[in-house]
Amino acid sequence: MYKVLVSDPISDMGIQLLYDAEDVEVDKKTGLSEDELVAIIGDYDALLVRSQTRVTERIMGAGTKLKVIGRAGVGVDNIDLEAATGRGIVVINAPDGNTIATCEHTFAMMMSVARSIPQAYKKTVSGEWDRKTFVGVELRNKVLGILGMGRIGSEVAKRAKVFGMEVIGYDPFLTEERAEKIGVKLGSVNDIAAKADFITVHTPLTSETRHLIGKAQFDLMRKGIRIINCARGGIIDELALVDAVNQGIVAGAAFDVFEVEPPQADHPFLNNPNIIVTPHLGASTIEAQENVAIDVSEEVLHILRDQPFKNAVNMPPVPANVLSKLQPYFNLGEKIGVILGQIAQGAVHEIVVSYAGDLIDVDTSPLTRHIVKGIFTNRLESINIVNAMHLAKTRDVNIVVQKSSTSSSFTNLVTVTVKTKQEEKTLAGTLLAGIGERIVLIDQYPVDFPPAGHLLLVSHNDKPGIIGRVGTLLGNNDVNIATMQVGRKVIGGSAIMVLTIDKEAPKEVLSALESQSEIVNVRGLKI
Ligand SMILES: NC(=O)c1ccc[n+]([C@@H]2O[C@H](COP(=O)([O-])OP(=O)(O)OC[C@H]3O[C@@H](n4cnc5c(N)ncnc54)[C@H](O)[C@@H]3O)[C@@H](O)[C@H]2O)c1
Ligand SMILES: O=C(O)[C@H](O)COP(=O)(O)O
């Protein structure tokens, strides 16, 4: 039974999938402190959060069973991603479900700040009928600058066009073609600062976007500009904004997010008549909350059940077409790795992976992750496909990936060489239609066996009688041989024998085999 802890208010309707799953038990405990979470997290396989719970390294350290952290929303700045990756915990988010809600909230804020709706409401309900103070501005024919033209920024741009606004966008990853397609001109941050009547930000908060708009930009702005932030506190320098409002450069600002949430009672936004605020409500619609909770529940189930998933934040995304092509090879790659990890003696310093045939046209990095995971499976505790590359890197293992278009006798071939100080070991495997996984090369020896169960690899000199001696010795020790393969390059030269056996051969049996004349070494493997 998998245990899932929901530590923020997440839509019950959205996580119904988890409540309904027979192999999942859900606990909802919101508003816990870090200490309280540390005390209980050890029981859970998955943690579901929104933006309130700060998922720290300490919490993850105590979460010894934790396999996945699901963020029902976009921003993952409340989760220590590096710590999660290091511990092999998958972090997933729900990037699409709240796009429209946040875009619509941005528009609500833009219109509210254009027409002073919250201020007018406040006066009206207090009994004042003031029709002079609140003369607003129209959006039509105004210039809207959008910083961050991703999902939300693009939706805001579309709506702004319908309102008759001219849109200038800034996003280092936005191509001119795409900008043209959505009818947006491209400009730099400073261009936008100088030309815009309204600016809205829709980037994540990163070291590059922190204070993307600060004093230098406010100094460039035209008097009467209006500023909206429904992305993350800190993208706009809060103190510089207050100064710009007080100097009359900024006529109004609308903020849904703060550098520190919730803001202190004396925060300068809270008593400024030209700054309107909401308490991080961008994603707070019934629809968005259901969407993100459904998305995240589906992904959590996939991860807990070892099924493919798509929205991992701490792993590169794998497009569906690439996943469908590579997935059949994941097991093969991992088994090649597991065998190599057991036969290569010493500390690994380089792994060379070569892909040939069908595999050269796709991004094979997800498969490489499975191979690296396999190699270190019996060497490093809690390695998985999330932290495999990270752990290899922290151990100074150089990973080289090659692709070869030269035709071999196989339609696909994965060849892996593991290099240690002592030796180099190579294994190649393929997927044969209708047959399945086969190992077809060990070092320079052609072989053909399925990578499964207990194996014995016997390196020996190709001399008459050896196969019989090995068979007799194993038989005398009650080790039954299921299949046997011999690979050699030349008659009488060095050779390899691969035996699949029904149970693990005891150590004494391996030593007895190794002491036989013409046998160089014997390795027992479990796959
Ligand atoms: N207020 C809320 O409740 C709420 C709800 C949803 C999302 N958000 C915030 O909104 C942000 C945007 O969400 P999204 O779904 O559109 O994300 P997204 O990833 O689709 O878009 C972010 C865009 O920012 C761009 N970007 C990154 N660095 C940049 C930089 N230095 N300068 C300019 N652009 C840069 C990226 O290229 C990307 O196109 C999220 O990061 C999240 O923090 C807030
Ligand atoms: O990044 C997000 O998805 C938004 O900031 C929403 O956060 P919330 O789930 O805490 O409302």
TrEMBL record:
Chain ranges of the ACT domain: 455-527
InterPro entries in UniProt: ACT-like_dom_sf, ACT_dom, ASB_dom_sf, D-2-hydroxyacid_DH, D-isomer_2_OHA_DH_cat_dom, D-isomer_DH_CS, D-isomer_DH_CS1, D-isomer_DH_NAD-bd
Key words, A-Z: Amino-acid biosynthesis, NAD, Oxidoreductase, Serine biosynthesis
GO molecular function: phosphoglycerate dehydrogenase activity
Top EC class of this enzyme: oxidoreductase
EC number: 1.1.1.95
Pathway stated in the Swiss-Prot or TrEMBL entry: Amino-acid biosynthesis; L-serine biosynthesis; L-serine from 3-phospho-D-glycerate: step 1/3
Function: Catalyzes the reversible oxidation of 3-phospho-D-glycerate to 3-phosphonooxypyruvate, the first step of the phosphorylated L-serine biosynthesis pathway. Also catalyzes the reversible oxidation of 2-hydroxyglutarate to 2-oxoglutarate.
Family from the record: Belongs to the D-isomer specific 2-hydroxyacid dehydrogenase family.
Official protein name in the record: D-3-phosphoglycerate dehydrogenase
Organism: Paenibacillus eucommiae
